[in-house]
Automatic annotation (TrEMBL):
Pfam families listed in its UniProt record: Proton_antipo_M
Family: Belongs to the complex I subunit 2 family.
GO biological process, one term: mitochondrial electron transport, NADH to ubiquinone
Protein name: NADH-ubiquinone oxidoreductase chain 2
Native species: Cyrtodactylus srilekhae
Amino acid sequence: MNPLIWLTLTTSLAASTIITMSSNHWLLAWLGLELNTLSILPIIMKPHHPRAAEATTKYFLVQAAAATTILLAGTTTTWQTGSWSITHSGPTATLLITAAIMLKLGAAPTHLWYPQVLQGATMGTALVISTWQKIAPLTLLYMTHNHLDHTAMLAVGITSAMVGGWAGLNQTQTRMIMAFSSIAHVGWLITAMTISPNLTTLTMMMYVLTTMATFLPLTTTATKTIADMGTTWPLSPPTLAMTMVALMSLGGLPPMGGFMPKWLILKELSTAGLMMLSTTLLLATLPSLFFYVRLAYLAM
């Protein structure tokens, strides 16, 4: 790709997220989300391959549908309240926004596009979709935090955590495993959002760090399947040893960093008296931990 085009795309990708994050106006937020989608489409499509074209099409359709729903919700709010402000939204609009953001984040039960898109993209692009592309929708959730339906949010959170764990057990492709891991983590993020937005920031930061630490070695060693994982040890033992640590951290195994946000979320849930919910969330992480441990074991 021409360096100038590449620079334009990456700049608009960064700028679009910042536009959404700093806007207080529904139209500006929607514009940022649309610009975000448009700037990543050529990046996903860059390897001229039918799989990449399929991933791009799926990504475009899902993101466009979600952004349109957000615009509809914003217009409805303006119609009812006479204000374009993001912080003023009625119950109907909030429900629409929540549904659209869940679709954008790839949270269960609207997650089916996500693993397919990641599998069709390159490792680097998959990393961008898993980390940077989640920031703008999450910011919108932050802004509408006071109006959110907590029951619906907790239900989505727990469903995502369970789906991410169970569906990932069946996968042999590393990108698919990372996709389901991402869905499970989004579940934790959404659960954290209902109890403490500050905790969500911490969880997101830890998630981005550990996901980058896992994706980057997989990119450099070109590890596409679980079987490849077993053959990369002679290539670079230190890299693979670090990948182990990152995988364990993603699984939330103490004393790794990834354990801290999960521990704090469970503490908050227990304090709020949601014992059943926290137990279910905790059990839902066991399948995820199993496939991380399996990856780590094969790498050794």
